[in-house]
C-alpha cells in the first residue's frame, strides 16, 4: 500500500500562523527575517501559479543518496567552504536526521575521524584540519557528533 506524503508545512493552511512576529519591536534581525519570509512566499506563490498539482514532491531516496554521498565526497564547487567543513557535516547529518534516514556506521565513523582531525590540541574545533579553532566550527562539530551519537562520536569531544 502506497502512503500519501504529508503536505509540506510551507504549503499548509496554518503556515501564516507560523510567520515571525516581532511584537512591535523592529530590529535589523527581525527586518531580515521578514524579508526572507516574503521572499519564500513569493517563490511559493510562483510555484502554485505554475503547477496544477497541489505541492512539490520530496524525492526522499534521491535526497538520501545525495546527502550520504556528501559525507564522503563533495564536488569542487564546495571548495569555497573549506573553512566550514564541520558545518557541512552538521548540515548533512541534520538533513538525514530530518528525513529520518540512518547514517551507515562506516560513514559515521569516517565523519568522526574527520572531525577528530579538525580538533586542535589547544581545544575546540577548526573549520578543517590544520586550521585555527574557534567557536562556530566547534559548535557545528559537537552538534554533528551528537547527531551521530555513538561512543566513538562522543569520545572525539575533548571535554
UniProtKB/TrEMBL annotation:
Its cofactor is Zn(2+). Keywords: Metal-binding, Prenyltransferase, Repeat, Transferase, Zinc. Residues 58-159 form the Prenyltransferase alpha-alpha toroid domain. Transmembrane segments: none annotated. The keyword Metal-binding applies. It holds the Pfam family Prenyltrans. InterPro entries: PGGT1B-like (IPR045089), Prenyltrans (IPR001330), Terpenoid_cyclase/PrenylTrfase (IPR008930). GO terms for cellular component: protein farnesyltransferase complex. Belongs to the protein prenyltransferase subunit beta family. This is Farnesyltransferase subunit beta. It comes from Esox lucius.
